[in-house]
Specification:
five-stranded mixed beta sheet, mismatched DNA binding, 647 residues, Ribosomal Protein S5, domain 2, DNA_mismatch_repair_MutL, ATP binding, 22 strands, 3 domains, 18 helices, DNA repair, alpha+beta
């Protein structure tokens, strides 16, 4: 007896609903996308009890022809594709023809629609996939779709619905994305008679951002516009000062469709390289336009995922475009202003600074006298602390460093002033050696322009606060510089350059460094040992659970070589996929942190001046490698407001 049979159409629709209609937000998504495809300029969404009781979507689009109303609820019925070739040229948001029959099979539907301006239309009543009525009705041009009692006939699905607030959150999140991707459509979202979102539909994306994320977020946005042969990119990204604790504020759209793509998300974060603190993410609204033939949207039932045919060109394009915008900004926060983002309190409390006038005068006089006695080259030779910890401060090419193997101090080479950006003048840095990995600090500029990087402010040192912050000033106001973060940035750029050619600096050790790992780590490390050679560390298995380091670059921070290599090994073991650029960056960050001066460490005026000069010579002098700010400014006007000189 035959065991295989064709499923009933009603059961097949319920199964399809499991893919298409996951929750109330799925219904809203499908109906709103249909409204957009119909050319609507105004869409109103009204929901009750998180969408489980009622969902109503009203639009002023082209409507449905009377003879097509019933056919629209047949499975795979669509007006948007006619043959197989159309699948490679999809320009509409919906096209599968599964949404309406899937929704109708698990809910009670009332559809009123009209495609004419004469006020005549059709009204359909459907319950559980069964058509109850199809009659003439008075209706304005457009479509009014009401979905009630979702999942009333599938209690197993209803049981797994979350709380009303959770379901409302999913609906709101989707409606925010739609408003951001279509600022030219007036969109309204109401829940239980409360208006949650309302846009005017005038095409101004910044107004939509303000309506969703607030005016402070809108003020923190930077516009982006770039294009090449295949792609056009426009939208906004936030300054590094405005961050969030998750990626939810990153929205990417392709041809008007909201998508989720890890490659694009990673490209956005790479563009913020070392500008964001750990576990903080920017606000980004980016809209990509490309020919439909190079993107496949038919790879996911809910159409949230797409496949690009030229992703190797797309991701660097997005990364370079964002980085080009960020590199044009002077990223110095001004904390006196109301904080940007979710920082809670809007108040500001100024720390007290105690200045000893007599001592400051004495120090200045002593410093001036000592500076006059120094030649241009000997100015770079500081105390023992400068020799051991500030060694990368002595230039971008030639550094005063200690020979690790012999313990003999190498002579300080004379500085080439053309390699620096001092007192606000932009400097040049040496090119990468042949075969060096990609440098995430240097990007090609998009074709829409290549403006110069804003110069670092010209600063005059005042003093040091609590051995941690340098105090400086210029005609615009007061500046605080975190000395540890500043030295980290200087060291990071130095070590990143050095890791680009590690084989030139590796030296054999008279006494090899011994490292031990667990049995499981040992097996993993044996498979990844070749990666260490790429950064100049020659590691070999010494038997059992022991490894030894035969050689490492001589410019490793003195005294921290073993702990540094151990941390590098821990990172290599924790990564599933390793690439050379990422290993080079991680190693540079580890070295820079260990070699930098710390908080509560007193610096002389000459040492502080040297630190500021080297910071000004950096390619990115505003954040440390971990993304924390280096400089914070207080404008003269802000200070006058604090002291009530202006009201």
């Amino acid at each position: 007896m035959a065991k295989i049979h064709i499923l009933d159409e009603h059961i097949a629709n319920q199964i399809a609903a499991g893919e298409v209609v996951e929750r109330p937000a799925s219904v809203v998504k499908e109906l709103v996308e249909n409204a957009i495809d119909a050319g609507s300029t105004k869409i109103e969404v009204t929901i009750e009890e998180g969408g489980l009781q009622s969902i109503r979507v009203t639009d002023n689009g082209s409507g449905i022809e009377p003879e097509d109303c019933e056919s629209a609820f047949y499975r795979h019925a669509t007006s948007k594709i006619t043959n197989g070739r159309d699948l490679f040229h999809i320009t509409s948001l919906g096209f599968r023809g599964e949404a309406l029959p899937s929704i109708a099979s698990v809910s009670k539907i009332a559809l009123t629609t009209s495609s004419q301006e004469d006020g005549l239309g059709r009204k359909l009543i459907i319950e559980g996939g069964n058509l109850l009525s199809n009659d003439d009705s008075a209706a304005p041009r457009g479509t009014d779709f009401v979905v009630k009692e979702l999942f009333y006939n599938t209690p197993a699905r209803l049981k797994y619905m979350k709380t009303i607030q959770t379901e409302l959150g999913h609906i709101s999140d989707y409606m925010y994305r739609i408003a951001l991707s279509h600022p030219g459509i007036a969109i309204t979202l109401r829940h239980n008679d409360n208006t949650l979102l309302q846009t005017v539909g005038n095409g101004d994306l910044l107004q939509v951002i303000a309506a969703i994320y607030g005016t402070q977020a809108a003020k923190a946005m930077l516009p982006i516009q770039a294009e090449d042969m295949d792609y056009s990119l426009q939208g906004y990204v936030s300054i590094p000062e405005w961050t969030r604790s998750n990626r939810n504020a990153v929205s990417t759209f392709v041809n008007g469709r909201y998508i989720r793509n890890n490659g694009l998300n990673h490209a956005i974060l790479r563009a913020y390289h070392t500008l964001l603190p750990i576990n903080r993410y920017p606000l980004a609204i980016l809209s990509l336009t490309m020919h439909p033939s190079i993107v496949d949207v038919n790879v996911h039932p809910a159409k949230l995922e797409v496949r690009f045919s030229k992703e190797n060109e797309l991701y660097p394009f997005v990364e370079q475009a964002i980085h080009a915008v960020l590199r044009q900004q002077v990223l110095i926060p001004q904390p006196v202003k109301h904080p940007i983002g979710n920082t809670g309190s809007s108040s500001f409390i100024q720390e007290q600074f105690r200045f000893n006038k007599d001592q400051q005068t004495a120090n200045t006089a002593s410093s001036n006298q000592s500076e006059k006695s120094l030649s241009d080259s000997s100015k770079l030779v500081q105390s023992d602390m400068i020799g051991s910890q500030l060694s990368p401060l002595t230039g971008s090419v030639n550094y005063a460093m200690n020979d690790v193997s012999s313990g003999v101090n190498l002579p300080v080479r004379e500085r080439n002033d053309q390699n620096y950006r001092i007192n606000g003048a932009k400097g040049n840095f040496p090119e990468e050696g042949k075969g060096a990995p990609f440098n995430p600090e240097v990007y090609a500029i998009p074709k829409n322009g290549s403006p110069e990087i804003p110069p670092f402010p010209e600063l005059t040192l005042i003093g040091q606060h609590h051995g941690t912050y340098l105090i400086a000033q210029n005609e615009e106001g007061l500046y605080l510089i975190d000395q540890h973060a500043a030295h980290e940035r200087i060291n990071y750029e130095f070590y990143y350059e050095q890791f680009g050619r590690p084989s030139d600096a590796s030296q054999e050790l008279l006494l090899p460094i011994t490292l031990e790992f667990t049995p499981s780590e040992t097996e993993q490390l044996k498979q990844k040992i070749n990666w260490f050679e790429q950064v100049g560390v020659y590691l070999e298995h010494f038997g059992g659970q022991t490894f030894r380091v035969r050689a490492h670059p001589y410019w490793f921070p003195k005294g921290d070589e073993q702990s540094l290599i151990e941390e590098m090994a821990e990172w290599v073991l924790s990564e599933r996929m390793i690439d050379l650029a990422k290993l080079r960056e991680k190693s540079s960050i580890l070295c820079s942190c260990k070699a930098s001066i710390k908080a509560n460490q007193k610096l002389t005026n000459l040492e502080s001046d040297t630190l500021l000069e080297r910071l000004a010579a950096c390619k990115q002098p505003y954040t440390c490698p971990h993304g924390r700010p280096i400089v914070i400014s207080f404008s003269s006007y802000d200070l006058e407001k604090l002291f009530k000189r202006v009201m």
